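$ ./design --mode recover --in tokens.txt
reading tokens...
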């Protein structure tokens, strides 16, 4: 008999979710973690980055309080205090992901590196563990691009940035994706000079209409944006670092953050010994997240590379994956992963939220029946009252009004993402939102107004007007 029903490699968001469900259902579970319990999200990702952004946004709010007639002196940034806040946020959440909590659930937590030695066996801490099923949830790590000189300078990644004791004087950020932009704005608002060097366009996956207000805000925060810039080499400059661009420009800073994407942590897992098909993108799985080559094995979280969909690096995707695995692996029910209604939020100010596909992604599939409605946040009473009426809600529906995608930009718009994820997931029409009674004044009303705009041309059409004209004669 195998030692464990389920062996899970990695105690990040994905592994912990699978472990909690499996142990809760009474299975014998082993969880292997070679580093920090909680993985990237808790220790080097979502939690520290959002904690740092909260401090940064507080400083920005203090700076712009004058718009309310509230005059404050320029904020003083106590870097040690900011770091203490970040560490405090991690410490407050850590018990949820701790060895103690999972041991209490009946999970055997092995704090060691695990690697497969056979199709049904692992080795960790010098011991062999056999399993009925295994889940690989080993996550992803920052890509380090092969730029000449980069490996000779002390660059930062998300794994080292939040442990930096000193405040960067001039932070160079390589990559203008969500990590680069969130950290650029956080540091700029906390008083650092920041330059983002982006090979293509910042926030390149997002709808360009949403990126425009963010670009303006970053520039207003003092962030220098170098888009379409190719870094040809990196070298030391005094105590700092210089980026040499292909166009001959030289940008010197005190620190360099590398944020050019993520690579699946497939090395060192012994995947060949267990016949587990993989590529640098991750573990090749079907849409039930089951390995295409070893049917005892599933993959979850950043390391999963489901056929036709590809990897996604979000904590809520880890939970989604755990749900699919519970259905398919534990209940043996049909399960099929879909990202049709997947939300994502970049927590800059303004935030960018995308739910489901963008207009460009839908057009790329050849769809021609798209109806687009927009509502500018300058027309939203709540945001006007708060002096922050910037950004937009843009909805993309099919010709019958069924919502396919939503692109939002504006202060706090991420809080609206759930509403649109539900609508897309439940295949709801815009009429549901247009007809909903939402509390006044809230930013959500912009969504309702955008939805209403889909019907306005039909409602105010000549035939409808003629009908109302006739109806008025009824007693
Ligand atoms: C800076 C930053 C900010 C982010 N912000 C957000 C956000 O706001 N919202 C959001 O949804 N997502 C965010 N993400 C993405 C999110 O953090 C990841 O999608 C999520 O943490 C991935 O979880 P995971 O369980 O797949 O992997 P991980 O969290 O990486 O966990 C994998 C674990 O496996 C362990 N491991 C690896 N190999 C082995 C082995 N052989 N043996 C034993 N253990 C092993 C690792 O030590 C690690 O702890 C952010 C990421 C970063 C980097
Ligand atoms: N708020 C969130 O939910 C959140 C926050 C941070 C990270 N994440 C997750 O982590 C993932 C990784 O984030 P990321 O920002 O590292 O990666 P990314 O792939 O999203 O963006 C990387 C950016 O770097 C650019 N780039 C690539 N090579 C370059 C080079 N050599 N020089 C200059 N620019 C280069 C790309 O054009 C791209 O714009 C995200 O896609 C997301 O899934 C989510």
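writing sequence...
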């Amino acid at each position: 008999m195998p030692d464990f029903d389920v062996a899970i490699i990695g105690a990040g968001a994905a592994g912990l979710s699978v472990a909690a469900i499996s142990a809760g259902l009474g299975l014998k579970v082993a969880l292997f973690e070679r580093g920090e319990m909680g993985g990237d999200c808790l220790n080097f990702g979502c939690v520290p980055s959002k904690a740092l952004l909260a401090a940064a946004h507080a400083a920005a709010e203090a700076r712009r309080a004058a718009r309310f007639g509230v005059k404050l002196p320029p904020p003083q940034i106590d870097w040690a205090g900011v770091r203490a806040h970040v560490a405090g946020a991690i410490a407050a959440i850590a018990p949820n992901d701790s060895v103690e909590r999972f041991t209490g659930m009946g999970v055997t937590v092995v704090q060691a590196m695990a690697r497969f030695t056979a199709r049904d066996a692992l080795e960790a801490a010098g011991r062999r563990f056999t399993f009925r099923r295994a889940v690989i949830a080993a996550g992803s790590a920052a890509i380090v691009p092969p730029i000449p000189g980069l490996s000779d300078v002390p660059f930062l990644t998300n794994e080292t940035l939040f442990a930096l004791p000193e405040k960067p004087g001039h932070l160079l950020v390589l990559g203008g994706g969500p990590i680069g932009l969130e950290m650029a704005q956080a540091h700029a608002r906390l008083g650092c000079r920041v330059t983002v060097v982006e090979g293509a366009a910042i926030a390149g996956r997002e709808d360009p209409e949403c990126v425009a207000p963010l670009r303006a805000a970053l520039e207003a925060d003092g962030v220098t944006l170098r888009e379409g810039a190719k870094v040809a080499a990196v070298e030391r400059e005094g105590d700092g670092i210089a980026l040499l661009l292909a166009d001959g420009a030289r940008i010197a800073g005190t620190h360099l953050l590398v944020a050019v994407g993520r690579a699946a942590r497939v090395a060192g897992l012994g995947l060949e010994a267990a016949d587990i098909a993989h590529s640098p993108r991750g573990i090749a799985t079907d849409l039930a997240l089951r390995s295409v080559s070893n049917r005892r094995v599933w993959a979850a979280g950043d390391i999963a590379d489901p056929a036709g969909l590809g990897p996604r690096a979000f904590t809520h995707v880890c939970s989604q994956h755990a749900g699919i695995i519970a259905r398919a692996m534990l209940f043996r029910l049909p399960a099929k992963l879909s990202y049709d209604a997947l939300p994502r939020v970049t927590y800059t100010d303004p935030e960018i939220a995308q739910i489901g596909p963008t207009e460009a992604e839908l057009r790329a599939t050849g769809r021609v029946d798209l109806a687009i409605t927009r509502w500018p946040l300058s027309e939203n009473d709540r945001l006007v009252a708060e002096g922050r009426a910037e950004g937009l809600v843009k909805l993309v529906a099919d010709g019958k009004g069924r919502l396919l995608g939503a692109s939002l930009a504006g202060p706090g718009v991420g809080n609206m993402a759930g509403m649109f994820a539900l609508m897309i997931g439940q295949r709801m029409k815009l009429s549901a939102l247009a007809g909903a009674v939402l509390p006044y004044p809230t930013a959500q009303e912009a969504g309702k107004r955008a939805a209403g705009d889909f019907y306005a041309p039909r409602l105010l059409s000549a035939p409808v007007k003629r009908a109302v004209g006739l109806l008025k004669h009824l007693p």
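exit 0
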